[in-house]
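User: I'm curious whether this sequence folds into something compact or stays loose and floppy. Could you predict its structure so I can see for myself?
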Amino acid sequence: MSIVKDSVGVSIAVSGTGFTPSMVVKWNSLDLATTIYGLTSAVAVVPDSLLTSVGVGVVSVSNSNGVSNSIGITVVESMSTELAPVLYVAAGLLGAMAFILGFGLRL
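Assistant: Here's the prediction. I'll summarize afterward.
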């Protein structure tokens, strides 16, 4: 999956089980601002400053039960201008699933 470099307003929605009030989504081990919606879902915002160069962002979920497995999201220089929405789903450890919805994403 890819995100274009310098993208603005990228969010990651996470759904699963075993979430705790201290649950946080991480990007390359950095805590993201995470809003928790009950015991099974949350949304985290990827700061624009983390998308200023090409590379791979490693996304995981951390809570009092441990850290989930991770998924890599590639930050690319550019891609087609197609604006079709894309939904990416990845099953994780601890029963967590990541749902990433955006425009101009490439799997």
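Summary: The CA atoms of residues 69 and 92 lie 6 Å apart. The chain has one domain: 2-103.
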